[in-house]
Design brief:
The protein contains 3 helices and no strands. The chain has about 110 residues and is an all-alpha fold.
Amino acid sequence: MPNDKRQDLVDTLLKAGIGLFAMTEEKVKKFVDDLVEKGEISGTRSKTLAEEIAKRFEKGREEWTSRFGQEMRKILSGLDIPSRSEVEMIKEDLREIKRELKRLRKQDAPKD
């Protein structure tokens, strides 16, 4: 799989996971708002509750993102796909080979 497509896949999966958390957070906030409307909790308590929920979601999102990254690295490692740094090293090696080839061609060129 080309590097751009791999990156797109990772980005899509990451956004999907974050979107899932965001959707759930919206539903929880709506639930809290409904509790306030019904008079089951106070407006002050709803703010505190919403902040607690937001903190829990953020912690969950961070944990999920970390685990997702680890799993993706394992998968990519198992597929024997070079890392970005490895690709950059290969590119630099190729540039060096091209420079050396160009130098050798100039050196071997017939002199008029």
